[in-house]
Structures are given as structure tokens and as C-alpha cells.
Amino acid sequence: MILTKIDLSEWTHNLLIQKVITILPFDIFNSIMKKNISLFIIIATLFFGCFTNKPTTTNNSEYYKFSDTLKKINIAEFEHIKDFELPIRNSKYNSVTYAQIVETDTAGLILIVSFYLNDEIFFYDIEKEKLLKTVRLKGKEIESFYYVNKDSIFVFTSPHQNIYYHHDSSLVMINEKSEILKSYSWKDAPVWCTEKPRDYEDSVSFSFLYSQKLAYSKQKIMMPFVRFDSKMFGDSIYFDSRPITGYFETHEDQFYPTKIKYPALNGKFYYPYTFHGNFPSVAHDNEFNIGFIYTPEFYHFNSKTNEIKKHTLKSSMLDSIYPFSNIEQASNYGKVPRYWRMYYDSWTNKYFKTITFYNIYRRNTFIVADTNYNFEAEGILPKGVSKLVFTKNYILAPNSIKTNKLKNKVVFSAYKLKYRKGTNQELIRTLKSDIDKIKKEQVVTNFFRKEIKLKEKNYSATILIWENCYGTVDFVIKHYKINRKKYEENNVNLVLVGNNEIQIKESLKQDYNLNTDSISNIWVVGYSQYMPYLKYNPFFPRVVSVRNNKVVFDTIFGDDKIDKEFQIKLLKLSDEQKILK
């Protein structure tokens, strides 16, 4: 890449991700539906984008197929009972990562909650809507935890501020006094799990990655591996040598790999599991289930006998989710439905397996099954709901839509489950109806008018995800800085979209000497503000031009075009707008 007016002939596109935020499974993604919607899509897509330089516009139909067969099923519906409004310190950090219910003899029903990008665990009296106390690991972002008792709280922390790879000292045991009682080490873990976690030049690098609920049972924690693999695709021979899980015996301080492998599709191609491709959870027998993103297949693992049993729990709405055959498809894989974690409700002895349809539908569905993993019902989760917490009287769920309407509060909605007879086609029609509504809302001029507050009729802008490949972010910002005066005068804007607006503004000051408070054409917004208008692969810079409040240009620029065509286009738009003034 060569910046206009600057000689950077030795410039190379750094393939390391600048700010890889913890990969968010289904639970986080939807718990922040309004605040950080589609974050998982973005981060996973960003990784793929670092290895490909061409944007893709592949049609969704190439990735999955809704069922055309009419199937009579039981439809499960969430009946709203009431809302609990719980106090938090700052509305900026209201995205629930994990919640756990604990019944105590003295305080009754206690809800324990952690929040994204936060170093505290909050204890609430749920019925009284009262914050009882917090447990804090100062300076450590808490990604997941499991409460055993007041002297045994297992916590996964983020060892690095920007890149969350977990190796030694990521798992600690603390008490309710915020004292670290023990830091764990991955004794006897395979060497590829603990060394060179950021070395993309290796053919394969492994590391532990844990977001959300710790799969803890009987002093064991099931550990998912994240695989950084430049090849990304392979046949069964290639992938059979790549283990994907192991469990950690906390009382022994010892790690045991399992023999679980990725399930093959058609005996040849596998889906890309570059980020957090499997989801461990505790099963009804206090052993473990391990599920996968793109397939209804999952495994039950018995840690006593090492027995592995394969099961299938498939949505009645989906005929199939197709494997990717090339990297260009993978860079667009945020459009594909995903199977997610399995929850077990010990009060009803039922499993809940969740599915998300991501940025196209922004709705989440769920399957209900018995303890033999037989399909019993299917339904659509309420809007703004994803994470489920089970109590004797109702199902609790953090509600992101209601939360974002309040200041310094998080809303947990309580539901009861009702069943009725119906068909899978009813659910499909509901999802497709949402597509039509979203398309009407996705006009990008609404974003500039409502979120950026631009009043002009003629303007242009580059929209860029902050959590992007470092080279792309750095290149675009420097280009705007070089042409700052011209772009300010001619209303050529730069919109940076990210998870932490404060951090982005501070980085602009420190790294680029750009103070957004005194610059009229550089904007910083949160994911919740932009994601409803997401149209293309978010990895690539999106350039939009508006004339008389109508979009006349809207496209993305791949890495092969950013060093020349991107700059030429912005400069041309600037000249055009100067004439229009």
C-alpha cells in the first residue's frame, strides 16, 4: 500500500489482527443485540479477511437451505412474566457475558453476572432488584466464571488487553473477598496449546480460548481449543491429527486431551473453525456435551471412561448448512446460520440448543430436547434475548433491547415456556418476514441522519471497523489525516465503528494526534449504532456517497484496491463535493 503524498514503499500489510476482541459465541452476540450486534461475525470475518484481499458478494442461498418440507412440530413460545431492572455502574458496559443462579440459605435466590470488558462479578438479589456486592479482579477483564461456593469461584481472565489467547495464569480461583487463591498452569498440556499462540507463520497454532460459561463439573473444566491455521481447509486426514478439546482437573492441576475430532462433512471438506469452533457444556449426567457451529452433530463425552458418543439434534427449519470450498466464501461466512451452545435445564430435565441467524435475520431460535437428545419442540427467542438462565419458576434472560433504553441498569426478563401444535413453515415465515423489515431499515442514509446527525444533503464517508487488520485501519486513518483539511472542507467523513468508543478516541489522540472533539469529519460510534445498517463484509472499508439525500455510490474496497483505487475515489468525491458547495 502507498499512501497519497507519503512515500511508504516498504509498507507491508500487517496480517496480525490489531484488536481481536474475544470471539463471542451466540450468548454474548445476542445479549448485546443493540449494543454490539454482530460482533462475532465481524471478528471472525476480520480474521479471514486478513488472509484474503478480495471482497465477496456471494448470495446467502449458497450457504444454507431452508426446508421446503412441511413438518408438524411442537412450537415452543416464551411467555413474558416480568422484568427485573438491576443496577450497574455504567451503561457503556451493560453487555452480559455470563449469568448464574445460586440458591443460598440466607439470601435466597442470587443472580451472579459478569459483563463484557469488565473486571467485576456482580451479585444480585433478583427479587429485590438489589446489588448485594461485587467481586473484582482489578485490571483483569473477566471473560467467564463459575461459582461453586464463596471460597471457590473459577474465573477465566484476559491476559492481554487486545488479544485474548489463554495460556498460563488465565484461569484463577478466587473467593468472594476478591482474593486470588490459586493460579492454574496447563501442566502436561500439549506444547502446541501453550506456545507461539500468535505465530501465524506456523502451519497450525493452538491456544485455549474461553468466552462465557465455563463448562465446569465435578472439579473438571472442559477446555475448547482455538486453532489458528493458515490453511483453514482440509480433508479428514489433515484434520484428524488436530484435537479440539481437553479437560482440566482443577484438584490435580493437570490437563487431559480428549480424542474428539471435528465432524467431517461429505468426507472431505470441513467448515473453517479458525475461531472457537466448538462449544462445551455440562450434560444432564454431569459429564460434557461438545457441539459445533455449522453442524447439528455433537458429542457426549464421559470423562470417567473417555467414551465418546455422537448425537444429532437438527433444526426442523434447515435442510443443510453447506461447507465452504474456498477462502473467498469463508470471508463472507457471517451470513450463515450457526448452531450454538446447549443448555440443560435441571428443573425440567430438558435441553435447549440455540441457533442464530446473524446479521441477515437478527433472530435466534432454539430446539428443545429430552435427555436422550430427542427433538421435542422448536421456537423463536424473543427479540433482544439469547442467554438463558433456568430457575424453578421461570427462565431468566438478559434483554439487550430493554437494557439499552435505560441508564445504568441491566434488564433480565422472566419467561415461562408454553407449547402448541404447529409447523416448521410457520417459524420460517416469521424469520423471512423479519428480513423484509430489516431491508427497509438498512438504508445507510438513515445511519448518517440518525446516528451521525449529518444534516447536509451532499456528503461522502468511509465506514471502517476499528477491530480490523492493523494495516487497513492504520492506512485509512493516515490517508484521512494527510487530507484532513480538504476532507473537512468538502464533507468527506470517516466513521470508525468499534466496541469501546472511549478507547478508540484515546488511541486516535495518542497514535495519530487526532482529537475527535475538535475535528468535524471523524466520528466514532458503537456497534449498536452501525450494525443495523450493515450491508457488506465488514472487514473491508465501505465508501458511501450521498447526493440530495440519495445514495449514489456504496461499495467496499478490498486490500488489492485500497492503496490506489480507494484513495483516488475519495479524492474524486472530495472534488465533486467542493463543486456542489
Provide key terms for this protein.
single chain, 581 residues, alpha+beta, five-stranded antiparallel beta sheet, five-stranded mixed beta sheet, globular, disordered N terminus
> Sheet bearing the most strands, described?
5 strands, antiparallel
**How many strand segments?**
32
Mean pLDDT: 76
Low-confidence runs of at least 5 consecutive residues: 1-61, 160-168, 194-206, 228-235
Helical segment count: 13
N-to-C terminal Cα separation, in Å? 32 Å
Helical content band: 10-25%
**Structural classification:** alpha+beta
Q: What percent of residues are in strands?
A: 35-45%
Tell me, briefly, the overall form.
globular
What does this protein look like?
- The chain is of the alpha+beta class.
- The protein is 20% helix and 35% strand.
- The protein is built from 13 helices and 32 strands.
- The strands form 8 sheets. Strands 11, 12, 13, 14 and 15 form a 5-stranded antiparallel beta sheet that branches.
- The longest helix has 22 residues, at 559-580.
- The protein is globular, with a radius of gyration of 24 Å.
- The chain starts with 25 loop residues before the first helix and ends with a helix.
- Residues 1-61, 160-168, 194-206 and 228-235 have low confidence and may be disordered.
Strand and helix map with partners:
Layout: H1 26-31, H2 39-49, E1 64-66, E2 72-87, E3 96-104, E4 108-115, E5 120-125, E6 130-136, E7 141-149, E8 152-158, E9 171-174, E10 180-183, E11 204-208, E12 216-217, E13 220-229, H3 236-239, E14 245-249, E15 254-257, E16 278-282, E17 288-292, E18 297-302, E19 307-312, E20 318-321, H4 327-330, E21 338-345, E22 350-356, H5 358-361, E23 364-369, E24 375-380, E25 389-390, E26 395-398, H6 400-403, E27 409-423, H7 424-441, H8 444-452, E28 459-465, H9 470-482, H10 484-489, E29 492-498, H11 501-512, E30 522-526, H12 527-530, E31 542-547, E32 550-556, H13 559-580
Helix pairs in contact: 9-13
